[in-house]
Amino acid sequence: MTQDQTIVLYTFNDSFAASLAQDKLKENGINSFLENENPIGLNPLGGVELKVFLRDKEQAEKIIAE
To answer: Is 45's pLDDT higher than 90?
Structure first.
């Protein structure tokens, strides 16, 4: 695996919770991406994935856990 590879950090049931986590990461200088969003905001088929670069995984986990 390369450090530039993206990984799924967390999967959320709704896009609002995923966006809050993404904002928290951004405030701390970590780039992240959301996948599987839908316009309604709820995704019962697996959820919204919050992805980060592998190199940021450990720091991102600590930030989200705070």
So the answer is: no
Task: Let me know how long the chain is.
Answer: 66
User: Strands 6-12, 48-53: parallel, antiparallel or unpaired by DSSP?
Assistant: antiparallel
Question: What gap in Å lies between CA 60 and CA 52, rounded to an integer?
Answer: 8
What DSSP line would sit under 4-50, residue for residue? T-EEEEEEESBHHHHHHHHHHHHHTT--EEEES--TTSB-TTT-EEE
Kindly calculate the radius of gyration of the chain based on its CA atoms and give it in whole angstroms: 12
pLDDT of 1 reads 58
Average pLDDT over residues 38-60: 80
Angle ∠(62,15,35) on CA atoms, nearest 5: 80
Asked if 37 contacts 15 with a C-beta cutoff of 8 angstroms, the reply is yes
Q: Residue 14 has what pLDDT?
A: 84
